[in-house]
Amino acid sequence: MGQPVVHFEIIGKDPAKLRDYFGELFGWEFDVGSPVAAAVSEPAGYGFVNRMTTSDGTGIPGGIGGGAGYEGHAVFYVAVPDVEAALRKAESLGGKRRMGPERSPSGLVVGHFTDPEGNLVGVAGVA
User: Fold this and answer.
1) Contact in structure between 108 and 7 (CB atoms under 8 Å)
2) Cα–Cα distance between 90 and 104 in angstroms, integer?
3) Which pLDDT band holds residue 127 (cuts at 50, 70, 90)?
4) Single pTM value for the model
């Protein structure tokens, strides 16, 4: 069995404006009270999407954040048992490490890599 996608992020230079946009577009509401790692977003500028699911319970959590010094992108995160090992394996297969491992205040460890086509992918785990 493979490893699941567990989170998504949309990062930009004006996270409040992005939250307004996606909130209006999709009816999303946000919790901006939980800090994240500064490598991911300005900690106070990140909003977790209040998780909504379909009638069968599917749907993954996400967040919108960033700030003036953050390059805009969208990324999904795959759960892994060891973020460093996953980043090393991604590199050995032709990917390029972009960030991490980085630990958030909650203890979550994340990393980013680009695949051989340049697509940004995240990995997440608890260390």
Assistant:
1) no
2) 22
3) low
4) 0.88
